[in-house]
Amino acid sequence: DMYAKCGSLEESRKVFDTLPNRDVVSWAAMIAGYARCGNFRLAVQCFEDMQRQGLKPVDVIFTSILAACS
Predict the structure, then answer these.
(1) Could you give the count of Cα atoms lying within 13 Å of 26 in the half-sphere of its Cβ?
(2) 26-56: pLDDT as tens digits
(3) Which residue in 2, 55, 11 sits closest to 32, CA to CA?
(4) Residue 61 and residue 29: Cα distance in Å, rounded?
């Protein structure tokens, strides 16, 4: 989340990709980072990847997706 908040999505994604267990919190941070930086396509792609992993989205994820769309 720190890298994404600083606008370094590449570093954020590298850290995310090395996580042994990605939970809803880590997915939410990645989605929010993409949305915050205006990368709607990657925010939605990340959201879809999370769902394919069998995780259910929480409210904050929907907020991030909606923010990315606006």
Answers:
(1) 16
(2) 999 999 888 888 888 999 999 999 999 999 9
(3) 2
(4) 8
Angle at 57 between CA 52 and CA 58, to 5 degrees: 165
Residues with Cβ within 8 Å of residue 69, at least 6 apart in sequence: 40
Q: Residue 10 corresponds to which tokens in the numbers above?
A: 């590449």
Kind plus residue range of the DSSP H or E element containing 46: helix 40-52
Q: What region, left, alpha or beta, does residue 57 occupy, with left being phi > 0 and alpha being psi -120 to 50 degrees?
A: beta
Tokens representing residue 16 in the block = 């995310």
* pLDDT tens for each residue of 52-69: 999 998 888 888 877 777
Tell me the pTM: 0.83
